[in-house]
Amino acid sequence: MGRSPYCDSSGLKKGPWTPEEDHKLLAYIHQHGHGSWRALPSKAGLERCGKSCRLRWTNYLRPDIKRGKFSLQEEQAIEQLHALLGNRWSAIATHLPKRTDNEIKNYWNTHLKKKLIKMGIDPITHKPTKNNNEEMKVKNNINNSTLSHMAQWETARLEAEERLARQHKIQPIPSSSGGVESPTTSSTATGNCQHLAGERGVADDLPSSGSGSAGESKNYGWPDTILGEFLRF
DNA sequence: AATCGGCTCAACCGCTATTGT
DNA sequence: GACAATAGCGGTTGAGCCGAT
What we know:
By secondary structure, this protein is mainly α. It has helices at 19-32, 40-44, 50-61, 72-85, 89-93, 101-118, 134-170, 189-197, 224-232.
């Protein structure tokens, strides 16, 4: 495939963003939306590639981003979602409103992974690395059976959502968003999560097995009841 | 005060998926 | 259907900060 390179090397700036650049990007997006990221930098007067602009916006400048320390609840949610979804950070991010996949990924790599290792838990399998005490075993049995169930559910749900998305292309549904959501967040994790929250009927359409492609890590909205039950463990 | 090492996190890179022609 | 352009994802890097020595 003729894929364009990450950034044309011709004089485009790299590295940390300056406040002026942030301001230019923000001002442009507020006025016009991002439209085509590829075309945005020249229109906004930025010497950056579109990808860099998109990253800056989604990971830092978006108004619906919460920054700062992760709460205990968020931390537990990440641990449990990671046990279920693996390193699918964007999928995990859909369940943590206002957190970006990049932020969650960083937090996982710098804090949670180490914490689990310290506790004698394999951060990949989420199983005890050695024979821990009986209490741990019982706890993990509960978790594993729950997670296994949830994983099946998740796979099936992905397929259903995929079908739903295809239907929407044919027959677009009216948008119900009304919050801080900028016009540019339509394809972001948070946006999709909120969007799909109103489409939970898809669960009724669950197939028996699935092969949700790895790349399709968008649109993970869980029914609150199930997610709530899941996060209790 | 200097410097060393570990940690954090914003940003980059390479890839795949999706969309358009 | 083939190809090109674009969007998005996950892994990795490196600059800057901070505490220990």
